[in-house]
Amino acid sequence: MTLVARTRVQGIETLTLDAPATRNALSAALVGELTDALSDCAEDADVRAVVLTHTGNTFSAGADLRDPPAPDTFVAVLRQIVELPRPVVARVTGHVRAGGLGLLAACDITAAATPATFAFTEVRIGVAPAVISLPLLPRTDPRALTRYYLTGERFDAPEAARIGLLTTTGDDVDAVLAPVLDGLRRSSPQALTETKRLLTARVLETFDRDATHLTALSARLFSSAPAREGMTAFLERRDPAWVL
């Protein structure tokens, strides 16, 4: 079963996360397929840009708690998106949680339909948004991240745009993205590659400085007793023991 579908129209390669039964949770298998698809895009001179989108009502629910990728594997795919020599555009028509927000932050341009919702739910299962901070911290409003990291609150698409998580939002996400994709098709491939390199330099500095530490932190937290309780509670659809 294919978990990442691929299509191409006029030089725009669309990669579609296609595991709606698990709300496109980031399993080891899905992340592996996404890695392979991105590698193919990087090597194909006919790809002008990449659109990352999804089936179902959720862009990604975050890590698949039954089959999560290793933290260093997820860091690698985030960096792959940032370093890809083609612009990567996220197209969101549903909800985004936890690790899915890391995918968004790694993309160069992000657009979501107005009904989409977002939440950093890690604290509610006993862990922290560790590795996804690598692209998030350099690109997102720090005061807003403080609130949403610490509380796990849900917020809407206009708020996501205000804090820098989204580039743009609108009722019709395809109408919003039409001029973006047209602009990318009209741009020189060499110019796009070099301009992206300028724009992502600070993000990659964060990866170089913090990836090892945050990968270790993520692994430690996910193997902890509070995380086991939080994940068990989530799967059993009950409150974890620490809820007052």
From TrEMBL:
InterPro entries: ClpP/crotonase-like_dom_sf (IPR029045), Enoyl-CoA_hydra/iso (IPR001753), Enoyl-CoA_hydra_C (IPR014748), Enoyl-CoA_Hydratase/Isomerase (IPR051683). One of its GO terms (molecular function) is catalytic activity. Transmembrane segments: none annotated. CDD domains: crotonase-like (cd06558). SUPFAM superfamilies: ClpP/crotonase (SSF52096). It holds the Pfam family ECH_1. Belongs to the enoyl-CoA hydratase/isomerase family. PANTHER family: ENOYL-COA HYDRATASE (PTHR42964), POLYKETIDE BIOSYNTHESIS ENOYL-COA HYDRATASE PKSH-RELATED (PTHR42964:SF1). This is Enoyl-CoA hydratase. It comes from Streptomyces griseoruber.
